[in-house]
Specification:
The protein is α+β, with helices and mostly antiparallel strands and about 220 residues long. It has helices spanning about 1-25, 30-55, 55-60, 75-95, 105-125, 180-195, 200-205, and strands spanning about 70, 130, 135-140, 145, 150-155, 160-165, 170-175, 210-215, 220. The chain is elongated.
Length: about 220
């Protein structure tokens, strides 16, 4: 409930800032300093509500106790590009000679919000994979499930799990981005066996002799 209210509240705040800034361009209700002050206070409220979505008790209660931190380079790259894009817009608008320059705080607010949420996700381990009895739970941009009943077969190549679904689409997990690699590979092998999922002989052989790169040494897991 609180998460839903915070989501509605932050969207209303952002919409209000955009509408107020756009209308002010035509009617000049506020001078630049007052407009920036209003945008700043509203921006702080927007950032607070956005962060609250990831920290409220209801969301934390839904997080699995046993989870493996998992965030790919593509995920971080996408977020970094999004932050960089809005920061670039903010700088360009700030140094513009037109009236629309006073919209730059909106771009700055969005960039700061994305950065704050990304930091919270990283610090709290909110990007993860969790293994349940008959499905895998993924958390990247949102929570999603991959049920064992959806999977036709699994391939393991180049330290990547390829889950071939019955609809011919595929999901993948790169163990390079898993924190506790050895434990995850062991748990995954048990999960595949327990759910009687088809694994090719070649992939099974590779799983039985996984090389784990720890950064300082190389270990061969006997699974």
């Amino acid at each position: 409930m609180y998460s839903a209210l915070s989501s509605i509240g932050k969207n209303l705040i952002l919409l209000g800032i955009v509408v107020l800034s756009a209308v002010n361009l035509f009617y000049g209700w506020f001078d630049p300093k007052d407009l920036i002050a209003i945008q700043s206070f509203a921006g702080l409220a927007f950032i607070f509500l956005s962060c609250y979505e990831f920290l409220n008790a209801q969301y934390k209660a839904l997080l699995p106790v046993q989870r493996y931190t998992y965030a790919t380079n593509a995920y971080y790259m996408f977020r970094a590009l999004k932050i960089g894009l809005f920061l670039s817009f903010a700088v360009m608008l700030c140094f513009s000679d037109s009236k629309i320059k006073y919209i730059y705080p909106i771009c700055l607010i969005i960039a700061l919000t994305e950065g704050a949420v990304l930091f919270l996700k990283y610090k709290r381990g909110l990007c993860f994979v969790s293994i349940y009895a008959n499905y895998l739970l993924f958390s990247q941009k949102k929570l999603s499930k991959l049920f064992a009943s959806e999977i036709e077969s699994v391939e393991f190549r180049h330290d990547i799990f390829y889950f071939i679904k019955k609809n011919k689409k595929a999901e993948e997990i790169r163990i390079l981005h898993i924190d506790n690699k050895e434990a995850f590979v062991g748990a995954m092998k048990e999960w595949l066996k327990r759910n009687k999922i088809n694994v090719s002989e070649e992939s099974e052989a590779k799983l039985n002799s996984v090389i784990i790169y720890t950064g300082q040494d190389i270990r061969r897991g006997s699974l």
